[in-house]
Design goal:
It is a single chain. The protein is of the alpha/beta class. It has a domain of about 140 residues: 2-Layer Sandwich (Nucleotidyltransferase, domain 5), CATH 3.30.420. Helices cover about 35% and strands about 15% of the residues. It is built from 6 helices and 5 strands, in the order ββαβααββααα. The chain has a 5-stranded mixed β-sheet. The radius of gyration is 18 Å and the shape is globular. It starts with 16 loop residues before the first strand and ends in a 21-residue tail after the last helix. About 40% of the residues are buried. Its EC number is 3.1.26.4. Endonuclease that specifically degrades the RNA of RNA-DNA hybrids. It is an enzyme of class 3 (hydrolase). InterPro entries: RNase_HII (IPR022898), RNase_HII/HIII (IPR001352), RNase_HII/HIII_dom (IPR024567), RNaseH-like_sf (IPR012337), RNaseH_sf (IPR036397). Its main location: cytoplasm.
Length: about 200
């Protein structure tokens, strides 16, 4: 893992701030997961970073540390059916709302990874592009969302081993698309997504 700049502990030090992030937007199968995390004011962890920059082993080690030290945290998801019904963007926001609703402490301010969000209970929020690499609470949320979703997809893999979800976690790898062509789709696939490659040329 490459060196990264130290993450900021908060945007507004005088407020109870929740970081929020989602995982799984680009997948062909499985739910989209989101997490919300409120860290204590003096929390520091040099290893914490955007979950995509961490190995699976590092995420597994960080998860109990985050869960142990957080003032409050919650993880939630939206199903493939919800994704197909409302589209992946708003399903991701809905999952974040569910996670925020699961917090035992109501935050004064919400930090959102990305650039789109719908207000939650009239609590002020700030969208931060690539915020999971800038703020500790968002990075912590990304680690929880990613680790929980990976575990979920590994459980689904035991029921549908032909799709390789223990490795690809539902993302559109060549092997995953090939399995869809060979075996069809499952109830866990997102029917509104392009599940196989578009035909690039006519066969004669």
């Amino acid at each position: 893992m490459r060196e990264h700049a130290p993450l900021q502990p908060w945007m507004f030090p005088d407020r109870i701030e929740a970081g929020c992030d989602e995982v799984g937007r680009g997948c062909l199968a499985g739910p989209v997961f989101a997490a919300a995390v409120i860290l204590p004011p003096h929390f520091r962890c040099d290893a914490l970073n955007d979950s995509k920059q961490l190995t699976g082993k590092m995420r597994r080690e960080l998860r109990p540390l985050i869960e142990r030290h957080a003032l409050s945290y919650a993880v939630a998801s939206c199903t493939p059916e919800e994704i197909d019904e409302m589209n992946i963007l708003w399903a991701s926001v809905a999952a974040m709302h569910k996670a925020l609703a699961g917090l035992k402490i109501l935050p004064d301010h919400i930090l959102i990874d990305g650039n789109r969000f719908r207000p939650f209970r009239e609590i002020p929020h700030t969208c931060v592009v690539k915020g999971d690499g800038k703020y500790m609470s968002i990075a912590a949320a990304s680690v929880l969302a990613k680790s929980h979703r990976d575990e979920y997809m590994e459980r689904l893999h035991r029921e549908f081993p032909q799709y390789g979800w223990d490795h690809n976690k539902g993302y559109p790898t060549a092997a995953h698309r090939k399995a869809i062509r060979q075996y069809g789709i499952t109830p866990h696939h997102r029917k509104s997504f392009q599940l196989t490659e578009r035909q690039l040329k006519l066969e004669f």
